[in-house]
Design brief:
Number of strands: 5
Strand content: 5-15%
Oligomer: single chain
C-alpha cells in the first residue's frame, strides 16, 4: 500500500495487513556515499575548536559529579534533577585531561551517530535524496552542534530518542520484534538520561493510535514495547518523585508563550547564533519550509509527514502544558523533537514545487547554518565564559597560602577543574543557597560544596583574590564586591571578558 498516494484515507490502513508506512527503499550507492560524506562532515564540524572554549558551570558540574566513585553517582544525582546514566558513562569514558577536550568527545560521538540515525530514519520514511538532505541539515545545525560539543547529556538524549524512533519504524513497517525491542530499550535509555526522555516515544505511540483507529490489535506491540521500556525505568521512579517535587518547587526558568513552539522550530536548526540581519530571513525560511510540508501532508495525505509533525510538535506542547505548573520550557530537554524538523526541512528542500522555491529555501538555511557555525567557533560574544583564561590569569599572580574566594559557583566549579591547586572557596550569602533552588541543590548538595563566611575563608591570610562572575544573583555579587572594596585594600584588578579577578590585602 502506497500511503504517499493517499492510502491513509480512512480505515483502510488499519484493516490492511500491509504496513501503514512505506517499506524502506533500498537506495543506491550514490546516496549512501553521500550520506557517508555527510556523517564525515558532521564529525569534522564537531571536532573544530572542540577544546577552544572554557567549561562553564553545567559542564564543570557534570565532570565533578562524574569523578565520584561509580557507586556514589546515583545517590548524588538523586539530589540533583537528572538520572545517573550520563554521569555513569562519563565516569567510564574518563574526565580528562584535557578537561575541556577529551570529555566533550563523548558528546561528539553521540552527535555524529545521531546524524547517521537521522539518515537511517529518513531513508525508511522517504528516499535517498531526502535522507541525505535531512542528515546534512542535522550535521550543519548550529543548535545540534552546540550540544554535540558540550559535556552534558543532551546529545546522548537525542541519540537514544532516535534509536527508539528507528526501532518503532522497523516494528511498525515490518512487524520486526527486534524493532520493538529497540523502541523499548531506546525509551528506557532516554529516561535514564533525562526524566523527559519519554516524550518522543510517547509521541510515536500517539501517532500509532491515530493510525490504528478502531483496530486496537495493531497497538499491542508498540504499547507493550513502551511499557517494557517504562518497566526498566521503575527502579528510578521512586527517586523521580522527589526530583519532580524539587523541580516544581524551585525551577527558575522564564515562562514560555503560546508562540514558543514556533520559535523552537527555528531554534532547533539555527540556535541563538544568527544576528539581527539573518534572524528574520532564517526564521522565515524555516517556518515557510515547515508550512509547505504541513500543506503537502494534508493535501496529498502523506502519512509519514504527519508522523514527523506529531513527533516534532507533541513534546513541545507537553512542555508548554507542564509550564502551566512550573516554567520548564527548555528546547534542549526536547532535543529528540529537533530531528523530525531536520527531516521536514530536507523534504521541503527537495520536494517543494516549484523546484526553485525549495532550492532557495535550502540555500538560505545553509547560509544561516554556516553563519551560526562561524560565530560559534570564533565570536567570543557567542562563546562560553572564559573560565580557563581567568584561572590562568590568577595562577600567574597567586602565591601559596593565598585564598581564592568566589562570589558564584559559576566560577568556583570550573576553577576546581582548571586550577585544583588553588584554595578555591565559595562565599556564603548567595540568595539561591537560602532559597534552595534546583541549581543550589546541585552545587551544595549533589557536590557537597560548603560555603564559607569571609572571616572563615580568610582566616590567617593577608593577601587574597576575589573572583566575580556575574552569571546569576548579579545584585548579590556586586554587593559583595563593593563590600570587599570597603573592607580591604584592593591591589589590582583584571577583567577577563566579564570575569573579574581582584587582588586584595587586609588593611
Amino acid at each position: 500500500m502506497d500511503l504517499s498516494r493517499g492510502a491513509i484515507a480512512s480505515g483502510e490502513v488499519a484493516l490492511a495487513p500491509t504496513p501503514s508506512l512505506p517499506p524502506a527503499p533500498s537506495g543506491d550507492a550514490l546516496w549512501r556515499s553521500a550520506a557517508g560524506g555527510v556523517v564525515l562532515l558532521a564529525f569534522l564540524l564537531r571536532m573544530v575548536n572542540l577544546g577552544g572554549q572554557s567549561l562553564w558551570y553545567d559542564e564543570a558540574f557534570s565532570l565533578l559529579l562524574a569523578r565520584q566513585p561509580l557507586g556514589e553517582i546515583p545517590g548524588r544525582t538523586a539530589l540533583d534533577t537528572m538520572p545517573p546514566l550520563f554521569y555513569w558513562l562519563l565516569h567510564l569514558w574518563g574526565v580528562g585531561p584535557p578537561v575541556d577536550f577529551y570529555p566533550r568527545f563523548l558528546s561528539v560521538l553521540a552527535g555524529v551517530l545521531s546524524v547517521a540515525l537521522v539518515w537511517a530514519v529518513a531513508q525508511r520514511l522517504s528516499d535517498g535524496p531526502v535522507a541525505a538532505a535531512a542528515a546534512l541539515y542535522t550535521a550543519v545545525s548550529p543548535y545540534h552542534l552546540y550540544y554535540s560539543q558540550e559535556v552534558r547529556m543532551y546529545a546522548l538524549l537525542g541519540l537514544w530518542s532516535l534509536l527508539a524512533v528507528y526501532g518503532f519504524l522497523r516494528g511498525w513497517q515490518r512487524g520486526e520484534g527486534a524493532g520493538w525491542a529497540l523502541y523499548g530499550a531506546g525509551t528506557a535509555l532516554a529516561l535514564y538520561t533525562h526524566a523527559l526522555g519519554w516524550l518522543p516515544s510517547a509521541s510515536l505511540l500517539f501517532w500509532a493510535v491515530l493510525q490504528a483507529r478502531r483496530r486496537s490489535a495493531r497497538l499491542q506491540a508498540p504499547l507493550l514495547a513502551l511499557l517494557a521500556g517504562l518497566a526498566l525505568y521503575l527502579p528510578w521512579m521512586v527517586v523521580l518523585v522527589g526530583q519532580t517535587q524539587q523541580v516544581l518547587a524551585s525551577f527558575w526558568y522564564s515562562p514560555p508563550s503560546f508562540l514558543s513552539p514556533l520559535a523552537s522550530f527555528y531554534l532547533f536548526f539555527a540556535g541563538t547564533f544568527p544576528g539581527p540581519v539573518l534572524l528574520p530571513l532564517g526564521l522565515g525560511a524555516v517556518l515557510l519550509a515547515l508550512a509547505l510540508t504541513a500543506a503537502a501532508g494534508f493535501r496529498r495525505r502523506v502519512a509519514w509527514l504527519g508522523l514527523l509533525w506529531v513527533w516534532a510538535l507533541l513534546p513541545l506542547l507537553a512542555l508548554l502544558a507542564a509550564s502551566l505548573l512550573r516554567p520548564l520550557y527548555l528546547e534542549r530537554v526536547a532535543l529528540g523533537a529537533a530531528f523530525p524538523v531536520y527531516i521536514l526541512l530536507g523534504w521541503a528542500t527537495l520536494r517543494t514545487h516549484p523546484r526553485w522555491l525549495g532550492w532557495a529555501l535550502g540555500g538560505v538555511l545553509l547560509v544561516v547554518g554556516a553563519w551560526g557555525l562561524g560565530h560559534w567557533y570564533g565570536e567570543p560574544a557567542y562563546g562560553k565564559p572564559p573560565q580557563r583564561e581567568a584561572a590562568q590569569v590568577l595562577l600567574r599572580q597567586w602565591q601559596p597560602g593565598e585564598p581564592v574566594l568566589h562570589t558564584s559557583d559559576g566560577s568556583l566549579l570550573p576553577f576546581l577543574l582548571y586550577a585544583p591547586e588553588l584554595p578555591n572557596r565559595l562565599l556564603l550569602g548567595d540568595p539561591e543557597y537560602f532559597q534552595r533552588t534546583a541549581r543550589a541543590r546541585s552545587t551544595y548538595e549533589a557536590l557537597a560544596v560548603s560555603p564559607l563566611t569571609p572571616e572563615e575563608a580568610l582566616a590567617g591570610a593577608q593577601r587574597f583574590f576575589l573572583v566575580v562572575a556575574l552569571d546569576h544573583s548579579v545584585e548579590y555579587q556586586r554587593a559583595v564586591a563593593e563590600a570587599f572594596d570597603r573592607a580591604y585594600r584592593r591591589l589590582g584588578e583584571e577583567d577577563v571578558r566579564g570575569i573579574i579577578v581582584r587582588t586584595y590585602q587586609k588593611r
